[in-house]
Specification:
The protein is of the alpha+beta class and 412 residues long. It has 2 domains: 89 residues, Roll (Pdz3 Domain), CATH 2.30.42.10; 204 residues, 2-enoyl-CoA Hydratase, Chain A, domain 1, CATH 3.90.226. It is 29% helix and 26% strand. Helix 6 runs parallel beside helix 7, helix 7 runs parallel beside helix 8 and helix 9 packs across helix 10. It is globular.
Length: 412
């Protein structure tokens, strides 16, 4: 997290308005250029006054002003957002890896709430919610542009309480209804297993403040468990919706000996930056594959792009989500904040990720590499065998890693 007190997220100007509805707009026509134009300020004052006087029900001034601010920020793009004190507290909790809810990462796009990915081992994942699902109602409250934030907030709540979520899914004619039990989730962002005695599997579910520490611990455990040493690693970023920028940089740096990890361009004083890798590779250059899919977003795309561009790893799977912007959470008065898009970031080769995503080196299909798996399970670990049994794409990826020729040609 940045020392200046702003949370920088990957999944982010403060405009000061000074006016009084009673005494008119406090802006002169010859005011400095940074002052809100008089005609624009008058328009806002006129609308607020009309609503106050003639709306069918009375509305408090502070509610009108907060709604105006919320609308102004959310109109900028699908990722910027005004945060009331409760929402701000939730986002701070989420970046620490602890929260109470259903474990679902979503993206607001044109008034629609789209599932980026359910987080592993959470109520949403166990119930079967999928990347790309469109949430249409929460607790029977229909999601629309007027109540997006309120309905999203309904997914949060006390552990043990129920929440009903309805979604539309491509290829399914009728809405799908889920009833989830909220839980207090301490999400361990990294887990690892041995797929075979010398091949490790590392899954990162999201990027939080503890991810790099969890990664080091997981790799140390895999090394200790591999009696004859590790010869390859599969890093699984599928359905990883992103998280904290600094965590993505640290994870990329863990496998690189130098070079640019990610660069960003923006207008603010801290919005244009470049992160460089330091010497030291946790895996000492061993063979590595990164798995991605359409649910891999933001921080996941930074890692995949950095390792691919530096030819440190081969990326396999499906095209990623395509969220290449940085959101900065900026504290305001009275416990409020704004999450504002402040930068767009680029891979080391200069490619933009926004709306483009990361295209894998090898696109996995259900049939790819399956025949090559014959006889490959002889010395597989018990847990690794269970993973491979239920995950066809993981079996394909293991086949690619064991073959080595495609991957090695990329590393040379």
């Amino acid at each position: 997290m940045k020392a200046r007190g702003a949370l920088v997220l990957v999944l982010g100007i403060v405009l000061g308005l000074s006016f009084s509805l009673g005494g008119g707009v406090l802006a002169e026509r010859d005011a400095p250029s940074k002052t809100l134009p008089w005609e624009d300020a008058r328009l806002l004052a006129e609308v607020l006054e009309r609503v106050k006087q003639e709306y069918v029900e009375p509305v408090e001034d502070h509610e009108l002003m907060e709604s105006a601010v919320r609308g102004m920020v959310t109109h900028l793009d699908s990722h910027s957002q005004f945060l009331d004190p409760d929402e701000y507290e939730e986002i701070r909790i989420n970046t620490s890896g602890n929260y109470s809810g259903v474990g679902l990462e979503v993206n607001m796009d044109g008034g629609k709430v789209i599932v980026v990915a359910p987080i592993d081992d959470t109520p949403a994942a166990r119930a079967g919610l999928q990347s790309g699902d469109e949430i249409i109602s929460i607790d029977d409250i229909v999601v629309d542009e007027a109540n997006v934030n309120d309905t999203i907030g309904r997914m949060r709540g006390k552990p043990g309480t129920k929440v009903a979520i309805s979604v539309i899914r491509d290829g399914v004619s009728e809405p799908i209804d889920f009833t989830l039990i909220r839980t207090h989730v301490q999400v361990n962002s990294v887990r690892g297993e041995l797929l075979e005695p010398d091949i490790g599997y590392v899954r990162i579910t999201h990027f939080s403040e503890t991810t790099y520490r969890d990664l080091r611990h997981t790799i140390d455990e895999l090394r200790s468990s591999a009696a004859d040493g590790l010869h390859g690693i599969i890093l699984d970023l599928r359905n990883n919706p992103g998280g904290v920028l600094e965590a993505a940089v640290a994870v990329s740096d863990a496998f690189l000996d130098g070079g640019v990890i990610v660069s960003a361009q923006g207008r603010g004083p801290d919005a244009t930056f470049e992160h460089q890798a330091r010497a030291g590779d946790l895996l000492d250059g061993m063979l590595m594959i990164v798995m991605v899919n359409g649910g891999s977003a933001s921080a996941s795309e930074i890692v995949a792009g950095a390792l691919r561009d530096h030819k440190r790893a081969t990326v396999v799977g499906a095209k990623t989500f395509g969220k290449g912007s940085v959101q900065t959470v900026m504290p305001l008065s009275n416990g409020r904040a704004i999450k504002l898009t402040t930068s767009r970031y680029f891979t080391p080769s200069g490619e933009t990720i926004q709306d483009h995503g990361i295209m894998p080196d090898i696109v996995l299909t259900d049939a790819s590499y399956e025949d090559a798996m014959a006889g490959a399970a002889e010395h597989r670990t018990e847990v690794g065998a269970a993973l491979l049994q239920k995950d066809r794409q993981l079996r394909q990826t293991l086949s690619i890693l064991k073959g080595g020729q495609i991957l090695q040609s990329r590393l040379e």
